[in-house]
Amino acid sequence: MTSILSVDRLTKTYDGGFTALDAVSLEINEGEILALLGPNGAGKTTLISTICGIVQPTSGTVSVGGHDTQENYREARKLIGLVPQEINLEPFEKVINTVRFSRGLFGKPRDDAYLEKILRQLSLWDKKDDAIRTLSGGMKRRVLIAKALSHEPRVLFLDEPTAGVDVELRRDMWEIVRDLSDSGVTIILTTHYIEEAEAMADRVGVINKGRILLVEEKGDLMARMGQKELRLDLTDAVDTVPAALTSFDLELEPGGTRLIYRYDTRAERTGIVRLLTALQAEGLHVSDVETKQSSLEEIFVGLVKEGEGA
Predict the structure, then answer these.
(1) How far apart are CA 136 and CA 138, in angstroms?
(2) Do 157 and 44 touch, CB atoms closer than 8 A?
(3) Does 309 fall in a domain?
(4) Residue 299 falls within a domain, yes or no?
(5) What is the pLDDT, as a whole number, of residue 166?
(6) Average of pLDDT values for 223-246?
(7) Number of domains in the chain
(8) Confidence class of residue 222 from pLDDT cuts 50, 70 and 90?
(9) pLDDT score, position 197
(10) For position 309, what pLDDT does the model report?
(11) Contact partners, residue 167, CB within 8 Å, separation at least 6
(12) How high is the pLDDT of residue 229?
């Protein structure tokens, strides 16, 4: 795949000595959706701000579409659209004028047909003549996306795009992001919602304390690091796990009617057949069996803990 954005050992250290970015290297492919996960203060917004030229790096380089952001900032910035966390819009201006103005800032000629396409895609066309102050919070976020897309960027940064919106609007935003990706726009989003990354991303990056812990295909990450859990419901309750079953490292839930068996999906043998045979030999009868895959949230929490201990 072709790389559209290349970050090489990007470092940002502030005057007080705090290092917000610590030699971050990252390659982002054209047309993909990358979700960048990390706790508050991990460096997500600083990374985006530095790539977009809002924050000056201490060292390292960034290239967008082959243009170095330090040596050829204008050409690089033309390829980037940025949707910030904060809603900062002129409250008394009309939606259409707000978007037209953003396009003009990048030196693009007027193209009402293109802007209509964007506004329709974002369900804003019927609001085009409304003042920003009359819109809901979710609609204002859509206007931010329209502004960011007005100059036809190839890379779109979404910094916490669904913060503060309800579940229904959040799912609408997910659909918008997928449509944008299908149209060829490369999307990098930061989010606190693990379900957002799990639902939308092609790859997942985890950042903590200014360092990238990993960037990996979402499916591969879950297969590599995820565990499965086998839940066995017993017909009759037991007080303890029989001694003959201790090698399986079973967990007995309160009430004594459910056993939990965890196994590695990467292992050549899961041990499930042996476990079921051993249960039968001990006279334990299973009434129901359920499996549960580790979620991306559980994996993320584990990675952050590992990074803090490094």
Answers:
(1) 5
(2) no
(3) no
(4) no
(5) 67
(6) 86
(7) 2
(8) confident
(9) 81
(10) 61
(11) none
(12) 85
Least-confidence region, from 3-7, 57-61, 120-124, 266-270? 266-270
**Gap between the Cα atoms of 48 and 17, Å rounded:** 20
Tell me, what amino acid is at 294? S
Do 175 and 199 form a contact (C-beta atoms < 8 A)? no
Most confident of the ranges 39-43, 53-57, 267-271, 291-295: 53-57
- The C-alpha angle with vertex 156 and arms to 58 and 197, in degrees rounded to 5, equals 95
For residue 29, give the nearest of 198, 176, 215 by alpha carbon: 215
Among the candidates 223, 254, 270, a domain finishes at 223
Contacts of residue 246, defined as CB under 8 A and 6 or more positions apart, other chains included, come to none
Query: Average pLDDT of the chain?
Result: 88
Instruction: Tell me how far apart the alpha carbons of residues 145 and 176 are, in angstroms, rounded to a whole number.
Output: 10
Which amino acid is located at 264 in the chain?
D
Q: Are 83 and 142 in contact (CB under 8 A)?
A: no
Contact predicate 263/275, CB 8 Å: no
Do 195 and 245 fall within a single domain?
no
Query: What is the sign, positive or negative, of the torsion defined by CA atoms of 94, 86, 53, 206?
Result: negative
